[in-house]
Predict the 3D structure of the following.
Amino acid sequence: MNGHIRRSATVALALAAAAFVIAPPQAHGFAEDICYSQGGAPPDNCAPLPPPCPVDDPNGPLCGLEAFVRYGYTLRQPLGGRSLVHADSSYIIARTVGFSERDAYWIAAYDEATDLGTFAPRDVNGQPVADAATLTTKDIGGLVRTHFATGGFLFHFLPTMPGPLAPGPSGLRPDVDDPAHEVMLTHVRRWAMAGPGSSAPLCTGGFTNRSSNGDYATGAACYDDPQPAQINGVYSVETPVAIPFTNTTGEQVISGDVRSSQFDSWIGDESWNARIGIYLHALGDRISHHVCTDAGTITPPAPDRQEFRIDLNKPTCDQGPHAVRHEYETGVDFAGLDPEDQTTEAALSMVYDELVEFARARGTLDARATTPTTKSALLGDGLLPALEVRNPVERMAAVTDVGCRFGVPAFPGSPACRG
């Protein structure tokens, strides 16, 4: 009987996921944990882990099916939501390490907009904040996770390129200085660190002409050697069922006809903050999706084959476990998760370290941020236990309170500091 249930759930998930992936929604996505309610009601958890589902078995088919269906519902909520990891936590960390309140906000806003296309803050009851018009990002819809045709999908699922000596590093702590393996991650980081007006390109898939070191991530121009190449990939629905996607190497689509060489003029004054936010999102998603993307591979062009091949048709990329693992990221006891699923702690740790490096490059670093005690107090004693709170309103308030203890005003739309 249990085998029959498992097979039925797997088949149902495959069919539901296939319908979703083939015709993905165009605005929202998987990472939001706070979903706004209509009529001024308090927000809901976007997709809380169902109480019967354990925190140490992301592969259970019934929990996977329920999680996937719940996320499908979430994606279609008219007011959308936001991620307390991508938005609020990034804002608090950025301010703590030395960025101004304004810069910290825009870094976090573009971190969130990488999922949503645009971001405008709403209050706890789902209403736009009073100055929402001045706090709304420019559209960067070309980077959205469900946009396969623009290459946006690859800012969220970042496969590794196996090298001659090793398979790529674990995505729980990806090596941001290893372009031979971490192609997309190191490519976006280089572009973000270079800042406005630089010659560093932002390319579809992260693929450049080979650099002097032999990698495809840090070359001087987007891949066109001897001509642009196809990027042909497959992404698992329920293994072996997969959805194919195809792109062409070249400048990344930012929005409509706007390409990456126009990014700074398109974004305006907040361009450098936007670059950092986009990179932080790619970093966070590399970690969030690491059990999938660690198994995924990139095959570069060969003399007889002018294409990059991306293989994400792996069991660890299946949509059921994918959805369940997003439910592990907030509102659960992180200590009960298997080590490979403790992605929230891993992501916030690396976001902190990287924001220190960006603050240093910008000349705004607060020296106190470089001490282990500051990082431990902000993350281990602050944001991580706050993000474990299951009730969404209380979780928002707990995250805000952490920032308040460090002198960081509430993120726009969040509850005011308590006490």
Summary: The radius of gyration is 20 Å. DSSP finds twelve helices and nine strands in the chain. The mean pLDDT is 90.
